Structure formats: structure tokens, C-alpha cells
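Bug report (template v2)

What were you trying to do?
Predict the complex of my protein with WTA.

What happened?
Run completed; filing so the output is reviewed.

Input:
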Amino acid sequence: TSNHLRHVESMSTLPSGAGQIPKLNALILGEALASEEDDLIVPSQDFSAQAHIPSPHKYLEMYKRSIEDPAGFWSDIASQFYWKQKWGQPVYSENLDIRKGRIHIEWFKGGITNICYNCLDKNIAAGNGEKIAIYWEGNDPGVDASLTYNQLLQRVCQLANYLKDIGIRKGDAVLIYLPMLMELPIAMLACARIGAVHSVVFAGFSSESLAQRIMDCKPKVLITCNAVRRGPKTIHLKDIVDTALAESAQSGTVVDVCLTYENDTALKKESTKWVEGRDTWWQDVVPKYPDTCDVEWVDAEDPLFLLYTSGSTGKPKGVLHTTGGYMVYTATTFKYAFDYKPSDIYWCTADCGWITGHSYVTYGPLLNGATVVVFEGAPNYPDPGRSWDIVDKYKVSIFYTAPTLVRSLMREGDEHVTRFSRKSLRVLGSVGEPINPSAWRWFFNLVGESRCPISDTWWQTETGGFMITPLPGAWPQKPGSATFPFFGIQPVIVDEKGVEIEGECSGYLCVKSSWPGAFRTLYGDHERYETTYFSAFPGYYFSGDGCSRDKDGYHWLTGRVDDVINVSGHRIGTAEVESALVSHHQCAEAAVVGVEHEVKGQSIYAFVTLVEGVPYSDDLRKSLIMTVRKQIGAFAAPDKIHWAPSLPKTRSGKIMRRVLRKIASRQLDELGDISTLADPGVVDQLIALADG
Ligand code: WTA
């Protein structure tokens, strides 16, 4: 058993309600807390008293059951949802050990349900029809809208009826390429209602990336809008879609219908380019359909959505989530990690184009009947106070964002925060990358006025929901630590050989058994699923992250240990950027590494070898960067191009990235052993060109 679990076992003999929180926490860990008092931030008694999980003791009681009896634990929770037909036995089945055969994970198989029904109809039946489901805030202050649960259901049903009418059936893929309009969650829910599989592509991806995803999942319909305003800029999304559809059609994937929402604050219909026969205006067709629509009942293990994410090879992976387990898991993690109560107003700044927007803008909150703020714009436009303006306007009580935003606002000065009230806030959240202690403290002390616990939630596209996260009323926090595992999660830290290490340690973060929200496969490539995630350390799911555990058992995420770079919380594969660079006709070879960046967490640093005879120039630098923007998207553009006459390689031809990382971060005295390089002289050449 893991270290954590051993402590849990030893806890079972403790009397209930023993002692103060820190003392009890020390008891959990079987020893006094090793940290200095001032490194611990204890939730106020008022907060803990009203919290769902008010103490470590309560957490442990539930955690222990979730590990010892996962079927019973999750069945009890799942029973609170609507099922047309209850699931069969066993409640779950799994094999996470590649040595024992194919990897498989199933939860609530045989259970018949619908996640859209549980988000909308069920909450309406419970008397929440007139409650606001979505407050929508436009890019420009003063532009806003809202939908009650009743209205949201009507909108979803109209779109669902339209989709059925054009022939979309259960299991069909629907690609959604929309910015943060209300139509984005509406489109996701409409797909879910009729059993179609949505594949949302972040609207910051370029036409080439979009085309690649279209060709992989072959949707019958693509849902988009004509344009969007983001900050001071207008982005013509429909043009990007046109290029992508033309490109995919050329390779044999023809999308029949392009349903286009007229986002008239950004661009009028008349100015939008149009392909007759293929393109349809949303506003011309969807409102004509009935605003009720029968639900397509699906099996818990029927697919809900695909979401592409980056890995260590060039081709993005289509992460597949199914219905029942994902539903139960996102709803439960949302409720406990944010200590959600029906009176809360919740705002998550993530875009629905990423997993955070799937699980914690759309599904998790709506399953709980929450009121969600959906924001179209940029959090620092028209000025760095915009976020807190929105918090005050809607009386946001739970605010969930990424460390990169915290760090960028921190630089703008405290007065942009303090001129707003922020009195409504009670819980803060962080996701996407490790939050450094100084940003944590600024967020806690200044934004939350030392009143709001911070839930630093560690999880991934693949995990569907939170894995390691504070439960805000339960235990003292440490700035920068994601603390302890959620119910049902058994994280383990292993060494290079895959051996579990206990106590205070650091190594590779793995998970030992399945949980309801886990992804089930990579779309169309189960073998890649097995090799990417279950082969490195047989018997475990390997996250790709490094992690250390301190003396008190707290978990500290240390970043990716594979070839993935995390820029402003966006996952980017080094191989994707490299393949974009080498597609430039003057680039012979490229090696990309991540370097620490004050605001973005990491930035992209590219070593580029040019084709023989091509001279270095600023224009070429720009054109290389342009190529990456075009092929992936602006968010993946390298910050630095470092000219490299050649790259440091071992005698077998492998690029030594370790050396490149040190050169990129100018840690020149830490290059380590370079004697195994085929040509150690390369290193000096690179250093000489470092600032050229
Ligand atoms: C990183 C985003 C530290 C991590 C939900 C992970 C984090 C990757 C945290 C997944 C956190 C996410 N602390 N690191 N609280 N949250 N990460 O798939 O490296 O876009 O593997 O999912 O982000 O990114 P993804």
C-alpha cells in the first residue's frame, strides 16, 4: 500500500473529532508536521464549519472507504443522478497492467443515462428552472446576456433537433470550433443530448491544426461562428474554417455542413465569406426548431467526447471520455474541491476548447445546478482590472484560473485589484501548471484578502477531473502544493525503475487503480494509449509529470518529465513545434526545449539548423515563427530562435536535449558530461551564438 494509504489505515483507530486541525493533520501523518508554522495556511474556523469536508478526519473516513470499497463508494454517489436503467455488476472493471493483457477501464457499464438530461432536465425538475445557468460577459464591457436553466434547455433542444434533422445520429462526431459564446456549451450539450460525440477544437488553433483534427475524427458537421473579438482584435474564425475544410476535403474528408453562428458584435453576415450548399447560418435555421427534444439514452460507456491533446510525438492524441463515469466524477470533484453550495456564483476563466472548460465550465458545474459565468474576452482587456470588475458585477464566489494569469496581473500592480470590492469571493482555484509560492501568496493575500482557500487542482485532459487537490475546509494548505489525492485516487511516486518510493521523496507521478473519470482510449489508436500511458511503468497509469512528496505527505508537482512544454497552461509537444519548423524550406533541423518564463511558466526555445548556404537573418527568424503560428497556432510560437550550425548529438545520433536545456537557460556551468557527444565542439559554437 502507498504511504498515504498506510497512514489512512493507522487513522482508523483514532477517536473521531480528535483535536485541532493541524494537530489532527499531524496525527494523520503519524508524526508532528515538519513544516514551520508560517508555511501552513489554516482555513478559518468559520470556513471549515460550513464546508462539505470540514476536517481531515472526515476526509479520511471518506477516502478510506473510496479506496477499500470503490464500487460501494461510487455507486452511492452515482445513485444521486438520473439513470433510465441502473448499471449492472460489476460496478467497474479494469486492467491497468500491460503485462496482464489489454488495458481497459469501465465504470457503470449497462447503466443507461444521459449527461445533458442530468445537467438540465434534472435540475429543472428539482425546481431550478428559473435559476440562472449562464451569465455571459462579452469581450467589451457592457455587452452581456444570461440564460436560465429553462432557457438553456430550450436552446439546447432547438440545436439538438436541428442536428437530428440533418442526419446526426448517436455515435456521430460533431466538430465544434467556437470561442466562448454561450453557443459553445449549448453545442456541447446538444450533442450529448442526442448521443453525438463532440470534439471541441480550441478556437486559437490554426487552420492546419483544425484540418488535422477534422481528418482524424471525420465529423459530418462543423459548428463555428463568423468572427470573434478578443481584446482589441477581431479574429475571422470562418476564414480559418474555410481553409481547414478545403484542406481536409482535398485529402478526402468532406464535411457536409458548416453551421455558422453570426457573432454580429464582431462581424456582420454580409461581410462573411460563404460557401453555398455547405454553409448555413445558425440564426436562420436553429430557432425554427421545437424547443423540446427527447433524450437519446446511452450506455455509461458510450463515448461523450473526444479532445485532442499534445504528447511527445508530432500527432495530437484524441483523448476519449465516456458518459457515466465522467459525469459522476466531474460533478463530485467540482462539489468537493470548490466546496460548492447552491448559492455560489462560479467563474472559471478557461476556454471550453481545453479540458478545464469541458469539465469545469460546462459539465461539472451544470450537473450541480450551478450558475456559471462564461467570458468571451481576455482577462486584462480593456485594462488589468477586468477580472475583478467581472467578479464584482456577478458577485462571483468561486474563481478558478491559471497561474499564468495570476502572475501577469501581479505585475500590473495591486491597485488594479484593490479598487474593486471582491467581497463575494470565498474560494479560489488554480490549474494548468505548478503555482509558484509567491504567486500563490499574492493570490491568497491580495485577491482573496487571506479569507479564501486556494484549491490548486492537479489533473490532466486524460484524467477527466481533479486528481490531487485541496479540499478547502479540510486541512492546512502549503503555498504551491496540490496537497492530497481526491477520493478514489491512489497516486504513487516511482523511481526510474518503476519501483514505488515511500515517505519523503521525488520521482515520477503514477496512479495505481482506475477512477470513474479516467479516459478510456485514444480515438482510433488503443495501442498508442497503452504504450504512451501504461508501458513506461507497468501496472500504473503514468502521468508524464514529476512530483515530490514532503515530510508531511503533501504533494508538490514539479512539471512535465516528457517532451511536453507547458506554456501559459497550454500543453505543447516539442515534436509538434519541431515538425512545423522543419516544414520551412530553409530549415534543415530543429530542436525545441522549454525554458522558465516569469509569466508564462515556460516559453518555447528553438534551436534551428539552416539548409546549407542559407544565411541567418531577422526576416528568416520571423518567417520561421510565422510557420509555427500557421501550423499550430499563435500560442505555440517560439519566443526565441537560436541559430545552430549543428546540434549536439551522441555518437548514435540522438540529440542531447539536456545540454540544449542548459544552454537555453544559460546555465552554462551546469552542462554536465559532454564527452559522449559525437562532436563536443558543437557546444562552444552554440554558446557563441547564444545572443546573436
Ligand atoms: C500540468 C489541464 C501542476 C501538468 C487540466 C499536467 C499542473 C498538465 C496542474 C495537464 C497543477 C495541470 N499543478 N501542474 N495544479 N494542473 N498541470 O491536459 O503538467 O491541459 O500533466 O490539463 O498540466 O495539462 P492538460
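What did the reviewer find?
Residues 123 and 369 are 6 Å apart (CA to CA). The pocket of WTA is lined by residues 309, 354-356, 430-434, 456-461, 482, 543-545, 557, 559-560, 566, 571 (CB under 6 Å).
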